[in-house]
Amino acid sequence: MSRAEWIFLAHYCRSRAKRFPRILDAEPQRVLRVLEALRTVRALRTDRGTGLDRYYLSNLGVPDAAAFNERQFDPEFVPQVVTSLIRELRESSDAKKPAFAGRSLYVALAR
Predict the structure, then answer these.
(1) How far apart are CA 11 and CA 106, in angstroms?
(2) Which residues contact 54 (CB under 8 A, 6 or more apart)?
(3) Residues 69-94: tens digit of each pLDDT
(4) Where are the domains of the chain?
(5) Is 22 within 8 Å of 62 (Cβ atoms)?
(6) Helix (H) or strand (E) holding 19
């Protein structure tokens, strides 16, 4: 796909999640797909996308202190968090659904 097509797709995902937040509660498979796409896009980045990790984590409901300190950052933390969220959503219908995951996917695709 062209860059413009990726940006369009990202915008669509973000706007659907923003306009229809109850869809996320009714259909957790949609959240799973967004999280899987985010994990995949971030892994494909040559710089591993680490410059945006704070943004991704904030949209996934993870506080900065869990992953960052003044000297060190674990670049595998975001993929681990996303994988954990995916696993929780698959195992339990009551699992927390990150309502702003679409925002992270948008940024990952558009940048």
Answers:
(1) 6
(2) 64, 68
(3) 555 567 788 899 999 999 998 898 78
(4) 3-110
(5) no
(6) helix 3-19
Give the span between the Cα atoms of 105 and 17, in whole angstroms.
11
**Helix 3-19 with 28-44: angle, nearest 10 deg:** 150
Distances in Å between the alpha carbon of 1 and those of 16, 22, 52? 21, 30, 22
Both tokens of 43, joined, read 């892994």
In single-letter form, the type of residue at position 50 comes to: T
Report how far residue 25's alpha carbon sits from residue 76's, in angstroms, rounded to the nearest whole number. Answer: 28
Residue type at position 25? D
pTM of the model: 0.76
